[in-house]
From TrEMBL:
Residue ranges occupied by any AB hydrolase-1 domain in the UniProt entry: 32-264
Gene Ontology MF: a single term: peptidase activity
Ribosomal protein in keyword set: no
Species assigned in the record: Roseateles toxinivorans
Biological process, per Gene Ontology: proteolysis
Source taxon at top rank: Bacteria
SUPFAM superfamilies membership: alpha/beta-Hydrolases (SSF53474)
Matches recorded under Pfam families: Abhydrolase_1
Protein name from the UniProt record: Proline iminopeptidase
Family to which this protein belongs: Belongs to the peptidase S33 family.
Keywords: Hydrolase
Length: 283
């Protein structure tokens, strides 16, 4: 399904789980709505499925593709900014008549969620920040790839960010992507041609990512925020999660660090991660 969030701009979205659930006494119980912000940029919402489906018995899940991603309308490159993507969360909620959502951002989606906290602090009921960074932090990333994959991984990562291009990205996928997770059985395949937009990703890495600093805006948070990540994550190193937690108001933040886990903790620690998410969503 697609919904128009402003004239000429439609976002693709999908829904899993009921928002209103019938009770034994005949009344309807309202469940919280969780809006899932996918990673990337240049990807789509499919990376969430079916991993998040177990949460559909405690919340209504809204998957969507960011503006210019996946099945959503593609806009000009001038719209490929954190500010625009963050504001789109509010516009989507207005279009779907969602009030007080729980906003759940993974990786790049977590960067969007951080900017959303800064620009719209009174909008969410809760925010979840998973495996994300508040800034580029290249040296941390290179050191983390070196720890996980040695000099070859460090060099592949350095070469890609020095000159984002299809050729350097191919090497990055081949050498670095398998290091994102700590368990061989974790589903960590290369992006499919149907979902992946290399032009958008290269533009982000060249033009906006090097200048991002989300830490100051986190002080504006006005709702509970769960921050969690894997200690062995090379792409959003665990030090980044610690910085995010420290920048949030202390009385609102919950921080959880998972040992022996990588990028997207539920891939390596699915039982523990899902239990934590269910508890935070329903609390």
């Amino acid at each position: 399904m697609r919904v128009e969030i402003e004239p000429g701009v439609r976002l693709f979205f999908d829904v899993e789980g009921a928002g209103l659930v019938p009770m034994d006494d005949g009344t309807l119980c309202r469940r919280p709505t969780v809006i899932l912000l996918h990673g990337g940029p240049g990807m789509d919402h499919s990376g969430w499925k079916p991993r998040m489906s177990p949460l559909a018995d405690v919340a209504q899940l809204i998957y969507y593709d960011h503006r210019s991603h996946g099945r959503s309308d593609r806009g000009p490159s001038s719209e490929w900014t954190l500010d625009r993507w963050a504001d789109d969360i509010v516009l989507l909620c207005e279009a779907l008549e969602i009030e007080r959502p729980i906003v759940f951002g993974q990786s790049f989606g977590g960067m969007v969620a951080q900017r959303y906290i800064e620009r719209h602090p009174g909008h969410p009921a809760k925010v979840i920040l998973s495996s994300c960074s508040p800034h580029f932090g290249l040296e941390r990333k290179l050191a983390a790839f070196d720890r996980r994959g040695g000099a070859a991984a460090r060099e592949a990562a350095r070469a890609y960010w020095a000159d984002p291009s299809p050729a350097s990205f191919d090497a990055f996928l081949r050498i670095c992507l398998p290091l994102y997770s700590t368990t061989p059985q974790a589903d960590r395949s290369a992006p499919s041609s149907a979902a992946f937009d290399g032009e958008l990703l290269d533009s982000w890495n060249r033009n906006e990512l090097p200048h991002v600093d989300l830490l100051p805006g986190l002080a504006r948070a006005a709702c509970p925020v769960l921050v969690f990540g894997g200690a062995d994550d090379p792409i959003t190193p665990i030090e980044d999660q610690r910085d995010i937690a420290a920048a949030l108001p202390a009385h609102l933040v919950r921080y959880v660090e998972f040992a022996n886990a990588g990028h997207g903790v539920w891939r390596d620690k699915p039982v523990e991660a899902m239990a934590m998410l269910r508890e935070f969503i329903t609390a």
